[in-house]
């Protein structure tokens, strides 16, 4: 079998079909809401932004996504840090930090969840799936 993208193999190997694992600590997974009416995925909402439905069920993300917007924040921090909007494979967008060199993070980069809750800020931390430098050398 030939795969056009390594992403396909990685996704099938990575997550056990979304089955909840009671043993796994919550800090290692991102949970999101999906509207039971229209199927829209969202993050930390109480109403569906599309149909205003309130019947949402919580699902566990497989933890992979794409950088939609990356910014560097200097304010309230001793060192510049990256804050990115990540569009997850399931279709919702959340804000988090991507590890790595600040200049090496761009829109369109594929990332996967490293830590669901940063011990300092409580925000999700991602790591790049593709090594930005190795890919070009
Ligand atoms: Zn909806």
UniProtKB/TrEMBL annotation:
One Pfam family hit: zf-ChsH2
SUPFAM superfamilies referenced in this protein's UniProt entry, alphabetically: Nucleic acid-binding proteins (SSF50249)
Chain residue ranges for the region called Disordered: 1-22
Domain called ChsH2 rubredoxin-like zinc ribbon: residue spans: 23-56
InterPro entries: ChsH2_Znr, NA-bd_OB-fold, Thioester_dehydratase-like
Entries under PANTHER family matching the protein: BLR3430 PROTEIN
Name of the protein described by the UniProt record: Zinc ribbon domain-containing protein
Organism: Streptomyces parvulus
């Amino acid at each position: 079998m030939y795969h056009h993208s390594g992403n396909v193999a990685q996704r099938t190997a990575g997550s056990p079909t979304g089955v909840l694992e009671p043993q796994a600590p919550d800090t290692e997974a991102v949970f999101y809401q999906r509207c039971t009416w229209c199927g829209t995925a969202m993050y930390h909402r109480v109403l569906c932004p599309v149909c205003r439905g309130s019947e949402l069920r919580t699902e566990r993300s497989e933890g992979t996504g794409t950088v939609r917007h990356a910014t560097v924040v200097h304010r309230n921090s001793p060192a510049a840090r990256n804050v990115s909007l990540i569009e997850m494979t399931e279709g919702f967008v959340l804000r988090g930090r991507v590890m790595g060199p600040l200049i090496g993070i761009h829109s369109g980069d594929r990332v996967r969840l490293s830590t669901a809750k940063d011990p300092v800020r409580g925000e999700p931390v991602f790591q790049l799936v593709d090594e930005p430098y190795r890919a070009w050398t």
